[in-house]
Design brief:
The protein contains seven helices and no strands. By secondary structure, the protein is mainly α. The chain has a single domain, classed as Ribonuclease III (Ribonuclease iii, N-terminal Endonuclease Domain, Chain A, Orthogonal Bundle), CATH 1.10.1520.20. The longest helix has 25 residues. The radius of gyration is 16 Å and the shape is globular. It starts with 7 loop residues before the first helix and ends in a 12-residue tail after the last helix. The relative contact order is 0.20.
Length: 155
């Protein structure tokens, strides 16, 4: 099914801030981000363990990871002015929801991209935060091409 009708109103304006600050998109994106990361981490851990054990994990992606990734990808302009860590995380979630609803990337595409960009010891929390931040930064840099170039007051 095509879900583009859910973003038709956003496509009329197509500004970075309108997309990045849409609360409904952020709520949809929250599920996409957490599901994609949980599956990607499960695949990564399964592929990189010594005992051929299948590992399934569910993991919420923290606001520090998403906020840092947004800054590292130089996409803070999508967030509201004076955004805190929670707002920055919501912006990442909104952007990913927009890209998914626009049919620019499937959930499988997002999962595979994250798997390909994860590395290191994800059982070590500090290292997981670092490596997940890098993976999400790379994902955001990759999806820039699917997003509008104009900012709020541009035509």
């Amino acid at each position: 099914m095509d879900y583009k009708f859910l973003i038709n109103d956003l496509n009329l304006n197509k500004s970075q801030k309108v997309i990045g600050t849409d609360k409904g998109l952020a709520k949809i994106g929250d599920g996409i981000v957490n599901l994609a990361y949980s599956v990607a981490k499960s695949i990564y851990l399964t592929n990189n363990n010594q005992n051929d054990k299948i590992i399934r994990t569910g993991k919420k992606v923290g606001k520090i990871i998403l906020g840092s990734a947004l800054k590292n990808a130089d996409m803070k302009r999508f967030a509201k002015t004076r955004a805190d860590a929670h707002d920055l995380a919501d912006t990442v979630e909104a952007i990913l929801a927009y890209v998914w609803l626009s049919n620019k990337m499937t959930l499988s595409d997002i999962i595979n991209f994250l798997v390909d960009n994860l590395s290191g010891d994800l059982y070590n929390r500090a290292e997981e935060i670092e490596k997940a931040t890098i993976a999400f930064t790379n994902l955001l840099k990759y999806i820039k091409k699917f997003l509008p170039e104009k900012q709020k007051n541009e035509r």
